[in-house]
C-alpha cells in the first residue's frame, strides 16, 4: 500500500490519534502541515476534501476520509489488525462504544477548561465556566477510571485496542491541563501501561496537551 497522506499539524489531538494508529498498525504515512499557523483549511481546495474545514484529512489512494476516529478504524481494517478493531460484532461494538464516548462525551467536557487555561482563548475566560468545565471533565474521567478498574487493563477489556488510542491522547490532555484533579488510580495505572507503547510516547504523552 502506498503511504497514507495525512493532512494536519502534528500538535492537533485528532491528528495525533491517526499518527499513533499508523504506528500501531505499521502503516507508512506522509504528513503535511495544515491548520492554524500552517496551510489554511478554509480554502476551496481543502474544503473540497473536508467541508468542515478541520484536520485531519486522510488520503488513502484515491479515497479521502475525515473524522479522526473513522480514519483510525479504516487504517486498522486496511492493516488487518483485528486486535485493534475486532471483527466479531459484539467485541467490535465494545471498542467502538468507548471510541464514540470519547468523541461525544469526554471531548465536549473539556472545552471550557482547556480553551480557557491552555489556549487562553478570550471567549472561554470566565472563571466560573472554567471551574464548571473542570468539574464536568473530572466527572467524565471518573467514568473512565471505573471502567478501567473493572477491566484491570484497557478500556474495552484486557487487551489494547483502538479505544485506547483515542482515549490515551485525551487522558494526556487531562493530565496536562492545569486544573485540580481527583486521584484516579486506575487511570494512573492505565497511563503507565500506555507509556510502554512507542506510539503513545511519540504522539500521546509527548509533552503536547
Automatic annotation (TrEMBL):
<dbReference type="GO" id="GO:0016740">
    <property type="term" value="F:transferase activity"/>
</dbReference>
<dbReference type="InterPro" id="IPR040079">
    <property type="entry name" value="Glutathione_S-Trfase"/>
</dbReference>
<feature type="domain" description="GST C-terminal">
    <location>
        <begin position="88"/>
        <end position="209"/>
    </location>
</feature>
<keyword id="KW-0808">Transferase</keyword>
<dbReference type="Pfam" id="PF13409">
    <property type="entry name" value="GST_N_2"/>
</dbReference>
<dbReference type="InterPro" id="IPR036282">
    <property type="entry name" value="Glutathione-S-Trfase_C_sf"/>
</dbReference>
<dbReference type="InterPro" id="IPR004045">
    <property type="entry name" value="Glutathione_S-Trfase_N"/>
</dbReference>
<dbReference type="InterPro" id="IPR036249">
    <property type="entry name" value="Thioredoxin-like_sf"/>
</dbReference>
<dbReference type="Pfam" id="PF13410">
    <property type="entry name" value="GST_C_2"/>
</dbReference>
<comment type="similarity">
    <text>Belongs to the GST superfamily.</text>
</comment>
<dbReference type="InterPro" id="IPR010987">
    <property type="entry name" value="Glutathione-S-Trfase_C-like"/>
</dbReference>
<feature type="domain" description="GST N-terminal">
    <location>
        <begin position="2"/>
        <end position="83"/>
    </location>
</feature>
<protein>
    <submittedName>
        <fullName>Glutathione S-transferase</fullName>
    </submittedName>
</protein>
Amino acid at each position: 500500500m502506498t503511504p497514507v497522506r495525512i493532512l494536519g499539524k502534528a500538535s492537533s489531538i485528532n491528528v495525533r490519534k491517526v499518527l499513533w494508529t499508523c504506528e500501531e498498525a505499521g502503516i507508512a504515512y506522509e504528513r503535511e502541515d495544515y491548520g492554524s499557523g500552517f496551510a489554511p483549511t478554509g480554502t476551496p481546495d481543502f474544503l473540497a476534501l473536508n467541508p468542515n474545514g478541520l484536520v485531519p484529512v486522510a488520503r488513502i489512494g484515491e479515497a479521502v476520509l475525515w473524522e479522526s476516529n473513522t480514519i483510525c478504524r479504516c487504517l486498522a481494517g486496511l492493516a488487518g489488525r483485528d486486535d485493534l478493531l475486532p471483527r466479531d460484532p459484539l467485541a467490535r461494538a465494545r471498542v467502538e462504544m468507548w471510541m464514540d464516548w470519547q468523541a461525544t462525551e469526554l471531548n465536549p467536557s473539556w472545552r471550557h477548561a482547556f480553551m480557557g487555561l491552555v489556549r487562553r482563548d478570550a471567549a472561554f475566560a470566565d472563571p466560573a465556566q472554567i471551574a464548571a468545565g473542570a468539574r464536568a471533565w473530572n466527572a467524565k474521567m471518573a467514568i473512565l477510571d471505573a471502567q478501567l478498574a473493572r477491566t484491570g487493563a484497557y478500556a474495552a477489556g484486557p487487551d489494547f485496542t483502538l479505544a485506547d488510542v483515542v482515549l490515551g491522547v485525551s487522558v494526556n490532555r487531562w493530565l496536562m491541563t492545569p486544573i485540580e484533579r481527583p486521584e484516579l488510580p486506575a487511570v494512573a495505572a492505565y497511563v503507565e501501561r500506555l507509556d510502554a507503547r512507542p506510539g503513545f510516547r511519540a504522539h500521546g504523552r509527548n509533552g503536547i496537551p
